Design the sequence.
């Protein structure tokens, strides 16, 4: 797994968590998704624009609202794997939920997570994308392109207030269907994307993002805590 991660920038784990824990996470997830008051200010539509219906619901820092998430085996297990991959100083920077509701048909555009970052001397990072439903092409499973180097291409917003996107060659893109409880790990330079959800059911993903402890401190000093607007801007 580590070799794959270092070589191509991503890998999948077909079964990370057991059905009991999947159920527990689904319940906590649904409570947050349904509670617009609790999640106000942390919630946005990655599709951007001014539609009244959320097409790609993103809720930042869900464990701030629902600390039970932090006590699950999942958070502990993923942290252990990430430390094995990139070193013992890797820590959870932030978590997020991304849900694609039935028939919202909105792709998450191709991007590299590094396009969202502030300037950081240590660029190690890992994102673990956990499927809380069976995911496949038609409901928006993840796609990745094996990475060549650690360069970040120019990105722009896909719509007003929407996710960042870039243009890249997608000939080698790999589609990663997973059963619920499976996951992928990717680094910040790896291009990824998902199609829209054209099915009758939700596509729920819980995502845990890790980086070195010192870099998390640097982010926080600069006002980046992943709750939304930066409190302090780079000069
Ligand atoms: O869930 C998605 O559609 C996109 C997820 C993503 O971009 C990420 O986890 O970095």
Sequence:
């Amino acid at each position: 797994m580590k070799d794959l991660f270092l070589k191509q920038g991503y890998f999948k784990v077909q079964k990370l968590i057991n059905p009991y824990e999947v159920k527990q996470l689904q319940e906590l997830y649904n409570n947050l998704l349904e509670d617009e008051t609790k999640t106000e200010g942390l919630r946005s539509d990655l599709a951007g624009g001014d539609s009244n219906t959320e097409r790609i619901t993103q809720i930042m820092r869900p464990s701030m609202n629902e600390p039970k998430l932090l006590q699950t085996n999942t958070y502990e297990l993923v942290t252990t794997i990430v430390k094995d991959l990139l070193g013992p100083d890797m820590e959870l920077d932030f978590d997020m939920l991304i849900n694609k509701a039935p028939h919202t048909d909105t792709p998450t555009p191709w991007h590299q997570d590094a396009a969202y970052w502030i300037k950081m001397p240590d660029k190690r990072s890992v994102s673990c994308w956990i499927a809380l439903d069976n995911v496949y092409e038609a409901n928006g499973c993840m796609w990745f392109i094996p990475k060549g180097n650690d360069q970040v291409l120019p990105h722009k917003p896909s719509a007003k207030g929407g996710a960042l996107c870039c243009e890249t060659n997608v000939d080698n893109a790999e589609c990663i269907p997973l059963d619920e409880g499976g996951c992928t790990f990717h680094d910040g330079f790896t291009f990824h994307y998902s199609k829209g959800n054209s099915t009758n059911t939700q596509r729920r993903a819980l995502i845990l993002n890790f980086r070195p402890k010192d870099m998390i401190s640097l982010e926080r000093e600069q006002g980046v805590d992943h709750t939304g607007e930066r409190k302090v801007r780079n000069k």
Summary: The two ends are 40 Å apart (CA to CA). Residues 2-221 form a domain with the Jelly Rolls fold (CATH 2.60.120.620). The first strand starts at residue 10 and ends at 13.
